[in-house]
What we know:
Layout (H helix, E strand, L loop, with lengths): L1 E5 L2 E5 L1 H5 L25 H13 L8 H12 L4 E5 L4 H9 L7 E5 L4 H9 L3 E5 L10 H7 L4 E7 L8 H11 L2 E5 L7 E2 L2 E2 L6 E5 L12 E5 L2 H11 L22 H34 L6 E2 L6 E3 L4 E5 L2 H4 L3 H11 L4 E2 L21 E2 L5 H9 E5 L7 H16 L8
Pyridoxal-5'-phosphate binds next to helix 5.
Amino acid sequence: MLFFRGQGTIMIGVAKELTGVAQLAVRGGQPRVSRPLPAWPVAGEAERRLLLQVLESGIWGLGGALIPKFEERFASYQHTRFAVLAANGTVTLEMALRALSIGPGDEVIVPAYTFIATAAVIFQVGAIPVVVDIDPRDCNIDPVKVEAAISERTRAIIAVHVGGGPADLDRLTQLSSRYGVALIEDAAQAHGAEWRGRRVGSFGVCGSFSFQSSKNLTCGEGGALVTNDESIADFCRALRNAGRWTGRTPRRRVLGTDYRLTEFQAALLLAGLDRLDEQTNRRNQNALYLASLLQQMPDSPFIPALRDERVTRHAYHLFLIRLPEERWQLPLERVVEALQAEGVPARRGYQALYQDPLWIGSDGEGLTWRLGPGGAPEAERAAREVIWLPQRLFLGDSALMEEIWAALEKVWRYRDELRGW
Ligand SMILES: Cc1ncc(COP(=O)(O)O)c(C=O)c1O
């Protein structure tokens, strides 16, 4: 605000009245993105037909045909033998830990940059999360930090494929076999993603997927555990269904619960799975185009997450862009607000897990965790620098990518309008 005198009275005006009209939409300018954004979720005739089929069958839950049908199709889609459908992608991670008999005293390595659920399930089973740093180039777990954090109590590594981009599955599978610790893939965001032509979820002993509303394959709420190990699949089916053992492998004791979902959800998933390849290909095409536009900017202040050349297909659930703080000299929140005003639904990404109030000072309050050697400065930096663009944008056309790029470029060009207010 500036104070100036006009016709004998004190007037209050904003800087734009002296220096010209503000350009940024957040300051009153015209939003740069004018095209309608693609809607999500997508549904059509196939969903209607299958939902009606379930409705009229009278079998809405246990005993229906669609859950087993989806499980079979999804398992093979992810290049695994078995899939167990469950209430959400949080409980599928917990099922994986319970199936591996991980519990009190055991340590599980997790990346610091992930959704809270990835680590919360470790507390849920009474084990100890050991939090390690990420590779700043793609925000995925850093295998060097994983190796440094392995102790005689380590039972598993949970690798998250952040934004749908596979973590380094060569190194992680090597570490898993060298140290005899289980690899669990949190593929909640990575349906259909591939590492060297093989789908994620098939590298670890278990993979875990989410079908929550925002996900690339969704039924509102849902999750799936995939595995090649039949005894794990049998255990998880029993765990999901009050402990009832129906499998062919030797029976294990299971303190069961109810993690079931309904036939209606399986109907939506079956219809959605038929669209997933086409959508994933479109996301890949658009995301690569946007990345190329950003890279063409001279000395670009927008650095898209690195896509490893071994990633043969990315899920692009999120498109991660780093805005280096030394270039911007602005709080990320303010840039995100400006982008949103331009019509780009960008979001700030994760904070480091232990920056959540749940974790702060939690030792001694029943939640025990530890930080791997060297801490997680890259995850903390990512929290200050990385923004996300959601998958639905990448279902648009190349003209939308150009508008998004233009909006990003505009916010950079007029960034001074974001200072001092
Ligand atoms: C990385 C990651 N793990 C786990 C989950 C949990 O999945 P759900 O929301 O289905 O419980 C999510 C969902 O957002 C996620 O992004």
